[in-house]
């Protein structure tokens, strides 16, 4: 299984960053990534044959995170806990201001940004992972980047800096 060890070492950080952004840094993201890689290890012969094993792990981690929230909502009375304090630390290795702006995006746009830009999946792979078409991925990414450019320009007062970075 040395093959899996190489895959894990090469992709674990990208998967974790993508899941953190896609889930707005919700509690359990680290556990979801660990569970996804554990499942990939258990099924490595099948996962290795997948057209994109990273997309398989990301989809599994996203599903695990969603299942965790569904279980939590059933157990709690009322709203899920506020996770606003997560922004104080930066486990994703992103600029705190940019991460906050990305996390403020609508869910689908945030997921597309996380998978396309942070996990470096193609539009087709992102679409398969999120169960949407590649053209829809492009639309969500375009809208997300336009929103980020506008919000970052307002936050910095300098739109030219934004155009260079995004």
UniProtKB/TrEMBL annotation:
Pfam families: Sigma70_r2, Sigma70_r4_2
Entry annotated with the keyword Transcription: yes
Domain RNA polymerase sigma factor 70 region 4 type residue range list: 97-148
Xref: CDD domains: Sigma70_r4
SUPFAM superfamilies: Sigma2 domain of RNA polymerase sigma factors (SSF88946), Sigma3 and sigma4 domains of RNA polymerase sigma factors (SSF88659)
Keywords: DNA-binding, Sigma factor, Transcription, Transcription regulation
Stretches assigned to the RNA polymerase sigma-70 region domain: 9-74
GO BP, one annotated term: DNA-templated transcription initiation
Gene Ontology MF, one: sigma factor activity
Keyword Membrane attached: no
InterPro entries registered for this protein in UniProt: RNA_pol_sigma-70-like, RNA_pol_sigma-70_dom, RNA_pol_sigma70_r2, RNA_pol_sigma70_r4_t2, RNA_pol_sigma_r2, RNA_pol_sigma_r3/r4-like, WH-like_DNA-bd_sf
TM spans (from-to): none
Family of the protein in this entry: Belongs to the sigma-70 factor family. ECF subfamily.
Record-linked PANTHER family: ECF RNA POLYMERASE SIGMA FACTOR SIGM, RNA POLYMERASE ECF-TYPE SIGMA FACTO
Record-given protein name: RNA polymerase sigma-70 factor (ECF subfamily)
């Amino acid at each position: 299984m040395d093959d899996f060890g190489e895959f894990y070492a090469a992709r674990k950080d990208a998967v974790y960053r993508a899941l953190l952004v896609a889930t707005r840094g919700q509690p359990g993201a680290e556990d979801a990534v660990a569970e996804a890689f554990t499942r990939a290890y258990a099924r490595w012969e099948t996962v290795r044959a997948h057209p994109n094993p990273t997309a398989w792990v990301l989809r599994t981690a996203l599903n695990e995170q969603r299942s965790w929230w569904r279980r939590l909502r059933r157990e709690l009375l009322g709203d899920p806990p506020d996770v606003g304090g997560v922004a104080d630390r930066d486990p994703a290795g992103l600029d705190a201001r940019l991460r906050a702006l990305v996390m403020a995006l609508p869910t689908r746009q945030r997921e597309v940004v996380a998978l396309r830009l942070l996990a470096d999946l193609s539009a087709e792979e992102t679409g398969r992972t999120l169960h949407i078409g590649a053209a829809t991925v492009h639309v969500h990414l375009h809208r997300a980047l336009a929103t980020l450019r506008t919000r970052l320009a307002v936050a910095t007062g300098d739109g030219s800096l934004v155009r260079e970075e995004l």
